[in-house]
Amino acid sequence: MTMRPRRVVYAFPHAGGSAALYRVWQAQPWNDGLLVPVEMPGRGLRIRMPAMESLPELTAWLADKLCADLRERQAPGVAEWATFGHSFGGVLSVIVASEMNRRHGLTPRFSAVSASIAPGIQPDDARHLLSDEQILAMARADQGTPEAVLREPALASRVVAQLRCDYRLRRQFLAHRGLKVPQPLHLIGAEQDPHVSLAQLRAWEHHSEAGTALHTIPGDHFAIYRHWSRVRDILSS
Asked: What's the Cα-to-Cα distance from 140 to each of 51, 136, 137, rounded to whole Å?
């Protein structure tokens, strides 16, 4: 007998990414949980939509979309929800969860944040002003996008546009330096991450009224995608 999911987890992608990042995880069994990737406007299944570069506009739109999705899933038996986000998606996921609380009175059981610098110490940089060539070089160095994609001009151009959009959004995270959420935070850090140290990850403790728990995995910044079984255990807690 197939078990109905009790908990739904909305998963936010890293900068420049789409919901497709989580297809491998979705294909893996999870007894009473359901992973629902969040698709951003202007990419993936929503590629025909115009991208949103205003953080307040985007978070309000996502909060309403996720609220409607959650309401539909509650009827068949989903009892609770949580969020997961990697890197850029970690901060975005917590801001959207806060907006769902403000707009709809919905609070997640917890939020899981992977390899993400806390809002209170977000850097104020100007990556969105870099040239296409510079952004492409950074994407290649980060190794978060397959080289085969970056070699194809049309696909590479799309990746650059999506990254530039997310860099603009990330700069607006600075407005949330004082963010405080009621749910506990699960912090996931990679031990050899060159971009986000465990100290930067621990700074999330200032943003939760319910405390934080730190989990470590081996590997670099994008190692999380190779550790579904560990992530699933955390999301099932």
From this structure: 23, 6, 5
Report the distance separating Cα 152 and Cα 40, nearest Å: 22
The model's pTM is 0.94
With a CB cutoff of 8 Å and minimum separation 6, the contacts of 12 are 38, 83, 84, 85, 86, 89, 90, 92, 93, 96
Tens of pLDDT, residue by residue over 149-202, are 888 988 889 989 999 999 999 999 999 999 999 999 999 999 999 999 999 999
